[in-house]
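Record minuted for everyone:
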Amino acid sequence: MKILVLSSTPWADDNSFGLSYSNIFDGMEGLQFASVYCNPGQPDNPFDMVCFQITFETLVKNLKNPRVPTGKTVDKKKPDATLRNEKEQNVFDTARKLRWQVMFWVRDFVWRVGRWNTPELRKFLDDFKPDIIFQPVYYSSYLSDIALFIKEYTGVPMIGYISDDCYTLKQLRFSPLYWIDRFYKRRKVKKLIDRCDILYVISQIQKEEYEKIFTPVCKILTKSADFGKPAPERKAPDGKIRLLYTGNLGSGRWKSLSLMAKAVEKLNCEGYDFELNIYSATPLTEKMKKALSGKGSYIHPPVSYETVQKMQQEAGVLVHVEGLSLKSRLSVHQSFSTKLVDYFALGKCIFAVGRDDEASIKHLIDNDAAVVAQSADEVYNKLKELSENRDLFSYYGKMAYECGKKHHNKADMQSMLLEDLKSVCEGSN
């Protein structure tokens, strides 16, 4: 079966998209892939696939000089420095941090008038001859346009996969520019989703909300792991309790972590023994650094994924946080953190901060898979209880593993996915 994937970033295991999609399809036999992607970067994954790259920079160059091609076939086996454009990426990263909406409209305009629909792209599609399109759904007008073109041009069925709320109006924003952008792009998102035969979503909350809006059948698909073995035996630490957080600090997460830092400092002053280590690539302001520091709390620069895995094995408690403000909660209310699956597979005690209207936190509460604190007082009280009742370490470690086994088992996920792929392909013949 030949599967075509259109993505924003390259399918590479050094970014979240690539890691997630490699995890979804890893080990599935009889599948061939083609990747069309629309940003700088080099594909790097375990699959043998053909790739085609289009970028904002090449579209701009082509508008100046029509002889410059906008897209090209990429050999993922041959590293090519010309595929990367750090300057272009940095410009839009800066715009994102500073909320420069106009910059993103400029980008969208270039994609709208740019000549991405080229003979080279059509030849790439003709040569690959996909049986099905597996389409990540983005909050993006131009990616939706390209996906709809590919769907129409190839005439093959399409399965969609959405992991963030790209459609509803459940957001707390006061900028009129934001809402102009939202109303425009959600129309494109709906048009794309309505062309899908199945829509995979990432959480139960998202499934319940989108089933009321869209026509395709909605099913939950998340990152998965092998839970075929018994839960690993985990002993509670005898002395110091080491808490580990690795990840980004956006969407109000740093404020939730600051509550933990304050609680750790207070508990340590009272004679308890905690250590909170935070590893993040998120640029920190002085205010954030001050809020995340204290007696027993330490901020570190990011480390490799392999190092993270090693540290998670050695940590006493794995930390997951979501924002507590209404704005933060609404922005992630449908999203599920994929790193929780890694936590479940380790069978370790998880300490989470967040509210039960956020999909990740609700999942943990519904399955009793973590110590969950929903306020500053609960952060302090539940950390204290964890220190005084060390039987909770093994209990929550076991419950985390059972949650993974029930909801995120790789064999079950891939069985469902393969059955759906075959069913959709056969239904189109």
